[in-house]
Amino acid sequence: MLDRVWGIARSLVIYHGQPTKHRRLRRLYSQFLGPGDIGFDIGAHVGGRVRQWRKLGARVVAVEPQPDCLRVLRFLFGRDKGVTVLPVAVGERPGKASLALSTTNPTVSSMSQEWRDSVSGAFHGVRWDRSVEVEVVTLDELIARHGEPAFCKIDVEGFEPQVLAGLSRPVRALSVEYVPSVHDTAIATLHMVDKLGAAGGGYRYNYSLVETARMVSDEWLDMPGLLALLERLRPSGLSGDVYARLP
């Protein structure tokens, strides 16, 4: 029990306890979200992005299957009519799946065994020590129920390909995590994004390192430009988020 309290407390400090970072996040996401827009937060965790998106005036669909994180989201946003908290995971098709939980590091809980195997050496001391069965829906289902998002954040610890496989048309803008220790899988995910965006005129890309909430490139890049940028940054071993937006 103490480990679970510690894990959630740590996440709350990281995602809600840094006001300077909050201002940077609002500047970053103001490129994609404004009053009345819909934002999908796939892997909402304890709601750090949800809070900043609401301050931009956006309505938020916060998707989070971890029971402890759900308690926090419901406590923080349960009375906010602009936030819909969904206790589900997102994948390629509807159904049930097993979510491996890390009690002391809930940010790396994942439904991808391959991803957990690949990053176990990079995430020193992290253990996935319990699991829960969760309901799975698709992005297409979420769009049908809640409307077209102006922005969709996908941060699901290696399960991004399955999430994207449940989306049949491009959204205006999205982000996916890039982790250098699983470079090949991450690049395959980006090619999925690029193929998806072709139907909307082609995505342009940028990259934000770790939790800096700042874009690395002054210009939005095509896919070859993005891949070259990631290759240059890869030796640092630091993860980040790739942003994609339609012209």
Structure description:
The chain has helices at residues 2-16, 19-29, 48-55, 67-77, 113-119, 139-146, 160-165, 183-197, 223-233; strands at residues 38-42, 59-63, 83-86, 89-90, 95-101, 130-137, 151-154, 173-178, 204-209, 240-245. The protein is of the alpha/beta class. It has a single domain (2-245), classed as Vaccinia Virus protein VP39 (Rossmann fold, 3-Layer(aba) Sandwich), CATH 3.40.50.150. A seven-stranded mixed beta sheet has the order 3-2-1-7-8-10-9, with helices on both faces. Strands 4-6-5 form a three-stranded mixed beta sheet. Helix 3 (48-55) links the parallel strand 1 and strand 2. The chain is globular and about 40 Å long. The model has no long low-confidence stretch (mean pLDDT 90).
Give short descriptive properties of this protein.
about 250 residues; alpha/beta; Rossmann fold; seven-stranded mixed sheet; three-stranded mixed sheet; globular
Number of helical segments with 4 or more residues: 9
Multimerization status: single chain
What CATH first level would be assigned?
Answer: Alpha Beta
Shape: globular
Strand order of the largest sheet: 3-2-1-7-8-10-9
Order of SSEs: HHEHEHEEEHEHEHEHEHE
First CA to last CA: what distance?
Answer: 48 Å
CATH topology-level name: Rossmann fold
> Could you say which structural class the secondary elements and strand pairing correspond to?
alpha/beta
